[in-house]
Specification:
662 residues; 3-stranded antiparallel β-sheet; 27 helices; 7% strand
């Protein structure tokens, strides 16, 4: 990840917001000076050894640092982990995703691990055991108050007067996890979903240090420590990639242990059924994991799940709610075998195509099995006459991912479509596929020869899938007979382009987007060519180009007319650079989030008196009764502004995730 000054400042402010000033000062020094020893950090920050050890321990506990020990060196080198620091801002989204996918109890476990950082399995079990014991003692105390004589009969009179009926405990006060067996099941579920992974000895190595170590070890196996010849270099790349993949698979050792112990999801269901039939309590189920095993959050897998939610949102905007739910179910099936959003160019390098892993596919039957029966698939399907449907076009199978088309000849495309229609004459046609999307909430049927015909659930599902596969964004690819897959690389490239265009439109207007799309298609043009193609007046066009150049959306290139450079005799070409525009938008996004955190800090200083009051033990939880009216108004206004600022950060992060991470 490219660490710019705004990104570094935002990560520092995020750590300061969550963990305080001490670790944030150390982190800021590491970002500014690069990898450093503890002695260098002491000189840069002015902290003593005790403060540095405390700050470094906290940062390491939450996996916010890399460290490395060179051979023969007595000192460790520390380096900032920017990716994990930025992911702290996504904690709320991750917890919401876990709650919607795996339940409130799984969210509670994930929240506990996020708060404590790297966690041993035994420590996690002990913490929840103490919590369960405390809740049991409270329940026993309440039961004793209801039955003071211990004879199983409640007392109905107090001092000769009827005892008021006790108010039942709120369900919110009941623990989400009532036994260690429940905790074990949740840990299994999160590990199987790869949201929790094991920590191993190279987990704290930076990617650069790990690559250098592996390359050094492999080079020693060659004569003289040198790799010579094209064949040897290709073999060397394969060995490096294989070693990196083997190291990466170490983080999945926890999941493999569960599979080896026979504690997969299907086997757990069988175990639970057998235990209940035999009267065996669930708490006797063995963990099968070493209590000393350390676990942490797998942010790479969390990003995959967040990307699925974002793609579902895009599909809902394009096709409606029902089709988006179908797409979400398909993405969930695909994501079981996808561990990260983007491939690493070194780790995922394969010299031969046959060595590459096969793309993950989902069949129609698999998708039909996981869809909820309560989902009405007839909603959102268009009503099209059968004679307007081409079987060849609708059922076309694309075995390979699409390639980007830079230029399209409109006349050639029209001729091709005409010839395709001629070839399709005389062929049997299917009942209407989703060439047209229906009105949301409208139940429709397909028409054959003008008469309505009911279709089964499988056919309706295929119509939603065909609609997704025929989209211009490329949400889905029909890769085989009843097989479907998603090409994430071209899909996310198209969505990134759409987000860039939307940002340009919001900044400089629709005319700016027209000019950008034209420059993207035509390449570098001078003002005369732009004016003739865009059909704009020269004054308006020059003003709009200058405005977009100020925001960094378009660039200029000076071309001298003569060998001797002269600005007066040169002409300038305008062009659109997508990479530079993307970096510019990211830079502005980081600054927007920084500004939101700074405004929030200013508001806290302004309302410090009210915030200090609600932290008092005699006021906490009783703000309505204890606070004055003016203080309650100030508190309400502050909480409203805080929600708005934090919501703004989350919305900007949605854009950053699409442009940079997905």
């Amino acid at each position: 990840m490219l660490v710019t000054a705004p990104l570094a400042e935002f990560c520092t402010l995020t750590i300061d917001e969550i963990y305080g000033e001490l670790p944030s000062r150390i982190y800021a020094s590491l970002l500014m000076r690069g990898r450093s020893t503890i002695q260098q950090l002491a000189g840069d920050t002015g902290m003593n050894a005790r403060q540095l050890r405390h700050g470094l321990a906290l940062l390491l506990q939450h996996n916010l640092l890399h460290y490395h020990l060179d051979v023969g060196s007595p000192h460790y080198f520390y380096e900032a982990n920017v990716e994990h620091a930025y992911n702290l801002a996504r904690t709320g989204k991750i917890l919401q995703m876990v709650e919607e996918t795996h339940g409130a109890a799984a969210k509670d476990v994930m929240q506990t691990i996020i708060l404590t950082g790297l966690t041993r399995v035994g420590d996690l079990v002990d913490a929840y055991q103490n919590r369960i014991d405390r809740m049991n003692r409270i329940k026993e105390k309440l039961k004793a108050e209801e039955d003071p004589f211990g004879n199983g009969v409640e007392s109905h009179e107090v001092n000769g007067e009827p005892k008021p009926k006790p108010t039942p405990q709120s369900s919110k006060s009941d623990p989400l996890i009532s036994s260690i067996a429940d905790l074990n099941k949740i840990i299994y579920k999160l590990v199987e979903a790869e949201l929790l992974i094991g920590v191993h000895k190279t987990s704290f190595e930076s990617p650069e240090d790990l690559l250098a170590t592996i390359e050094s070890d492999i080079q020693k196996t060659y004569p003289g420590g040198e790799v010579k010849g094209n064949k040897a270099k290709a073999e060397y790349k394969d060995k490096v990639a294989e070693a990196l993949r083997k190291n990466r698979s170490e983080s999945r050792s926890l999941k493999r242990k569960l599979e080896q112990n026979g504690l997969s999801a299907k086997r757990r269901k069988l175990f639970d059924g057998a235990a209940s039939a035999n009267g065996t309590p669930d708490g006797e189920m063995d963990l099968g994991i070493d209590p000393q095993q350390v676990m942490c959050i797998n942010y790479e897998k969390c990003l995959v799940e967040l990307r699925n939610r974002r793609l579902m949102h895009y599909a809902e905007e394009a096709f409606g709610q029902t089709t988006s739910w179908v797409y979400a179910s398909l993405l969930n099936l695909l994501s079981k075998d996808i561990s990260r959003c983007r491939d690493d160019p070194i780790t995922d390098h394969y010299e031969r195509d046959e060595e590459k892993p096969a793309p993950v596919v989902v069949t129609t039957s698999q998708l039909l099995d996981v869809l909820k029966t309560s989902l009405d698939l007839s909603v959102g399907l268009g009503q099209v006459d059968a004679d307007k449907i081409s079987v060849t076009a609708a059922e076309k199978i694309a075995e390979l991912p699409p390639r980007k088309k830079f230029f399209i000849d409109v006349q050639a495309e029209a001729d091709a479509n005409a010839s395709s229609d001629d070839d399709d004459e005389g062929e049997d046609v299917k009942p209407a596929t989703n060439g047209v999307n229906g009105v949301n909430g409208t139940h429709v049927t397909n028409c054959v020869n003008g008469t309505a015909k009911r279709v089964d659930r499988r056919t309706q599902l295929r119509q939603h899938l065909l609609l997704l596969s025929e989209s211009t964004q490329g949400f889905l690819r029909h890769c085989g007979a009843e097989e479907w897959t998603v090409d994430f690389v071209p899909l996310m490239a198209a969505l990134r382009q759409a987000e860039i265009d939307a940002t340009i439109e919001n900044t400089v207007g629709r005319e700016g987007v027209r000019l950008v799309r034209m420059l993207r298609a035509k390449g570098k043009l001078d003002e005369k060519a732009i004016m003739s193609v865009a059909l704009m007046r020269k004054a308006d066009m020059s003003k709009k180009l200058a405005e977009m150049h100020k925001y960094g959306f378009v660039q200029t290139q000076e071309v001298p007319r003569e060998a001797k450079a002269d600005v007066k005799k040169s002409f300038f070409l305008w062009y659109f650079d997508g990479t530079m525009a993307l970096e510019r938008i990211l830079d502005v996004s980081y600054k927007t989030m920084i500004h939101s955190l700074q405004v929030l800090d200013t508001l806290r200083e302004k309302d410090q008196h009210v915030l200090s009051l609600i932290k008092r033990s005699d006021v906490k939880g009783q703000e309505d009764d204890k606070l004055r009216k003016i203080h309650k108004e100030k508190l309400t206004q502050f909480l409203k502004l805080e929600r708005m600022l934090l919501g703004q950060i989350q919305r900007v992060d949605d854009l950053v995730a699409v442009l940079r991470d997905y």
